[in-house]
Amino acid sequence: MNEKKLNFDSSCPAPINKYDKIMLAHGGGGLLSNKLIQEVFFSEFDNKYLNKMHDGAVFQTEKGKMAFSTDSFVVQPVFFPGGNIGELAVYGTVNDLACCGAVPKYLSLGFILEEGFAISDLQKIVKSIKFAADKAGVQIVTGDTKVVEKGKGDKIFINTSGVGFVKNEVNISPDNCKSGDKIIVSGTIADHGICIMSLRAGLEFETEIVSDTAPLNHLVREILSVSDKINVLRDPTRGGLASTLNEIAASSGRGIMLYEKEIPVKEDVKGVCEILGLDPLYVANEGKLLVFVAEEDAEKVLETMRKNEFGKDAAIIGEVTGSDDKIVRIKTSVGTTRIVDMISGEQLPRIC
After folding, report:
1. Is residue 200 part of a domain?
2. Domain carrying residue 77
3. Residue 2 has pLDDT above 80, yes or no
4. Which of 30, 79, 234, 304 is deepest in the core (most CB within 10 A)?
């Protein structure tokens, strides 16, 4: 076999193999996503805000701290039980800002529409965006619309960006978690990803599996009002609970221990995961919150979360260990312990 010689642009500080191609797995929130971000984007845009690998950037202004975040939504199908791409777009950016400890205020909307997309469907989506913005307490203040030729898009893509304000005493960051912190999840995991996959696979059940898409900013405000010992907030979207926890472990340099029997999963969701060969730990969520809080405030925060409609099934599912190995482990229901790696590929493409 003849050896192929690779030609690189000498101006590129981190040469990329010209035979490499973008795959769906690069958008899955796992190892390939992380590699793409680190080697292509971070190598060029290195700065203290980006390097935190947070859900958004938090920066100081003359009037106080602000947070900024952006996200794009390409979910297929665009309508699903429990929501649609419009609500998902609003809540996604609202939740990212909330996980920075911010009070979200203003959002932008960018639409990419495919020729032939029904205006009646667009109107439904826009109405749901208005509903979601009102529910979250944010305003849509600017936007943009582009139309591409039929076959050059997939019905509709939406980008949302948002800004919010952060109280000076609030300091939320993935690298803040401390040994002994308890880890709380706000409810059952894997609902959104399994909802989308069930639709695609044509699976029918006695009870409908519904997406968990929801605004979490009011819940975050409530828990921050009862504790000043909350160190990390994250919404475990792409890559699920497992990949998100691996990112936090890497950022903080800490080890994490999960307790399998404490992780809430609905029985019908668990059943679909078994049918499809999926692990709920790696399935995306769109309305769930991870909270890292000092042990002494854990029960108080848990009680507060359970009083909120989006935290009624909250549970303490693990803790930060004294180890500095950056490894996430889980104690299984049979008493053994195994390592929970970051997802390597893509289980569920186009879920958000």
Report:
1. yes
2. 47-166
3. no
4. 30
